[in-house]
Hints:
Layout: H1 3-17, H2 27-43, H3 49-58, H4 73-81, H5 86-99, H6 112-123, H7 127-140, H8 158-163, H9 168-174, H10 186-210
Helix pairs in contact: 1-3, 2-3, 2-6, 3-5, 3-6, 5-6, 6-10, 7-10
The site of nickel (II) ion (NI) has 6 residues, from helix 2.
Amino acid sequence: MKKKEIIENVIEEVKNLLKDDNSGHDFDHTYRVYKLALKIAKKEKVDNTFVISLISLLHDVDDYKLFKTENYANARTIMNKYNISIDRQNYIIEEISLISYKGDNITIPKSIEGKIVQDADRLEALGAIGICRAIQYGATKKNKLYDLNTKPATFLTEEEYKKKNSNTLNHFYEKLFKLKDLMNTQEGKKIALKRDAFMHKFINELLKEIKL
Ligand code: ADP
Ligand code: NI
């Protein structure tokens, strides 16, 4: 099977796996990460688009918040189906394991391909789409939109970050406003600064409206 055809098939597999999600990790999110990663790769003149495509398309299919799989079983099942070599599978899975945000315990993928996907995934938490996802996530978890009496926390461990379900406004200070300083690529940083500025504008306006 040609690489292009494999990617088209993987897209369908992932669409099927993520179709029931309503926590901000639905297929549309994965598809945007995939498209954005390819766009960043082009700007950064990185041409291993096959690996970038696989990392981005598979980055959420074993997320602990959605699936109870072990050893990245969903990603491996899909890659086995399309005869991706075990070496390449291991490499892709290691990069996926380093991509996700783990509180203040920051991990960075080793390869430029993984770094690009991490940037694309982080950009999804910023800007207009980032605001939408935060509100959607908070609503799904039945968290409060804001609570001016609770100060934003700093998370020290991955466990604390996973356990805590902050109100949505605090989440901007606990995670989202930090992301622009964590970007790996120049192009990612450029997009992040623009999206961060927009979020600040939005939150400033929101604070004016709610601090009566
Ligand atoms: P990742 O995409 O790295 O798996 P998360 O699952 O933590 O990250 O976040 C997915 C989306 O949900 C992001 O857009 C994030 O900003 C949002 N989110 C996560 N936790 C909260 C929260 N406590 N309140 C509001 N939004 C949240
Ligand atoms: Ni993601």
